[in-house]
UniProtKB/TrEMBL annotation:
InterPro entries: Glyas_Bleomycin-R_OHBP_Dase, Glyoxalase-like_dom. This is VOC family protein. It comes from Aquibaculum arenosum. It holds the Pfam family Glyoxalase_3. Residues 8-187 form the Glyoxalase-like domain.
Length: 280
């Protein structure tokens, strides 16, 4: 079975206060784009752009409008990793193929946002496809087709003080690896999915997606976990150009982390509830 989804687009981090969240990720060494507002919704965002993917900090700016359940997420989970988004170049074709494979998907739907650029507003447009919970591999996810990518990927936004250049790993916790495996095979193809006793690994382009059981998460990540966390998206890994330089920057800014040969590992309370890792 050939993969339908072959590229990763971005991660979404739900934050309680968008401006506080922006300042915190700047402290971690990221360049933050001008603020964006979703047209017709009560949410806004700041994006941290890399060459082929990005981090989206998502917050509520008008609770009287549609928030796409971000209010419920923050109330039940607190700040943290909300979802992963995959890239599509043909949403209509992907919807048809995934339905043919027995998955329940909603869409396509149109979305636009306003980027509050100092030289004048930009209005990037997207098409989205959402997955029914039973049709996604253990975590909230959707697919996104960029209709105006030149507005979102701009050269000044791609340079980061910490040397960040790409998202290379996504971590989630699920209680049902079997169901996650079935959805993963339908999404990515059998060759991209590997199952172990307490984990599941999938590949999407350059990204490795790791799903583990709650017991495995508690054993492996211990005190780095967010307080009260049980299951769902948990963290992601960012590749940097120079790990030593990234370490020096984090130290100079008083960021708490654990350093190992393989990378730098931040506790959840340093990254708005996200288990954030830096690797070279």
């Amino acid at each position: 079975m050939k993969p339908v989804i072959t590229a990763f687009d971005h991660v979404l981090v739900g934050v309680a206060d968008l401006e506080v969240g922006r300042a915190n990720w700047e402290r971690l060494g990221f360049t933050v784009c001008p603020r964006g507002r979703h047209i017709g919704w009560g949410t806004a965002n700041y994006c941290l752009m890399f060459q082929n993917d990005y981090i989206e900090l998502l917050g509520i700016v008008d609770p009287s409008q549609f928030t796409n359940n971000l209010d419920r997420f923050l109330e039940e989970r607190g700040e943290g990793l909300l979802a992963g988004a995959y890239r599509s170049s043909d949403i209509d074709g992907d919807v048809a193929e995934l339905r043919r494979r027995g998955l329940t998907v909603d869409g396509p739907k149109d979305l636009a946002r306003i980027i509050e650029h100092p030289d004048g507003e930009l209005r990037p447009r997207f098409r989205l496809m959402h997955f029914d919970p039973a049709s996604r591999p253990g975590f909230l996810a959707f697919a996104c087709q960029h209709l105006t990518p030149e507005m979102v990927w701009q050269a000044p936004w791609l340079e980061h003080a910490n040397g960040a250049r790409a998202i290379t790993g996504f971590l989630a916790v699920t209680e049902d690896l079997e169901a996650a495996e079935r959805a993963g095979v339908a999404w990515f193809g059998e060759e991209q999915v590997q199952r172990a006793a307490d984990s599941l690994t999938m590949r999407s382009g350059e990204l490795t997606l790791a799903l583990v059981t709650p017991a495995a998460a508690a054993s492996r990540y211990g005190e780095r976990l967010p307080a009260g966390f049980v299951s769902g998206p948990l963290g992601f890994t960012v590749a940097v150009a120079d790990l030593a330089g990234c370490r020096e920057l984090l130290q100079s800014r008083g960021v708490d982390f654990e350093a190992e040969d393989s990378g730098l590992y931040l506790p959840a309370d340093e990254a708005n509830g996200v288990l954030l890792s830096f690797v070279e």
